[in-house]
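Figure 2 data, in text form.
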Amino acid sequence: MRYLLLVFVLLFIGCSTKTYQSSDPKLITIKTKKFRYSDLGYLKRSGDAVSIELFSAGQMIQKIEINHLVCVQEGCMSKSRFNQEFLDKSYPDEILKNIILKKPIFHKNEYREINTGFKQKIQDNNVDIIYKVTPKSVYFKDKKNHILFKMKDIN
């Protein structure tokens, strides 16, 4: 009985709601083969974890949490499985987290600094990506895989 109680407590703590240190409102656009969204969202950060909450008409319609796994309404999965199901299987595991946190992608391949940020243009057999980061916005577009991710500060 004690072991059952211990297992229950560990499972409950492992699935408990995370407290984030910052929450910033953003205008977010996401277009993939499986998901389309363009409206208000909140970017939440705490240490190594990041979360995006997507709202429509004042109701949360999707929450994407990224830590060691990626959790969405359908459940939690590995980053590579998330990429395979929602983005593209050729993407590196950390791509979504790096885009959200405004970090370079694909090991800084084709990285070029611009006035107040950076830009990457990555083309190969699997992708045709334009990725641009400024202090107030993120723009990611993969023409080959029909994926768009835009995030802009609300100010």
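Caption note: Helices lie at 2-14, 79-86, 95-100.
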